[in-house]
Amino acid sequence: LPWIVWGLLGVATLTPQLVEAGWQWTMLFSCANIVINVIVVWLSRKHAMGAFTSRDAYMVIAVAVGILLWAISDNALFGLWFCLIADFVGVTRIWSKSWHDPDSERIVTWLLGAAAAFSATVSAAYAGETIVLWYPVYVVGNALASAAIIAGRRAVLQRRLEQHLWMPEAER
Questions:
Q1: What is the DSSP string of 93-149?
Q2: What is the model's pTM?
């Protein structure tokens, strides 16, 4: 279920960019994100998707508030910012899972995501449209933070394991 919510967030994130700036090639990054979410949902359809959680509800509420503020103010940045806030709420779910089970995530995936987002950031900066710049910059930070959390937690758990193995058996 979280992947469905993230797929919807992808659409909600792309829409204000399209409305405010019109089509930009840098938006291919956002489009790829939507496609990836759809593929994950399709591939995982035979597996348990997980229940709708309070975090999922917060994500949907944040997007709804952003869209409402966008409609009231006629400022698409509100829609985008609240989508990014909603996405961050979902990212905390990944960080929590990674903290408890750091081997459930691959660091290289997050680093590749950061590299792709960095490329989109450079492209968006070159295009000169500020609204198109927000999403890839956010993803760079999110992906690097995720990789750091996973690597840091693995290191801590590895040290604990090594300390445990070097203890005399009477102290274990």
A1: HHHHHHHH-GGGS-HHHHHHHHHHHHHHHHHHHHHT-HHHHHHHHHHHHHHHHHHHH
A2: 0.76
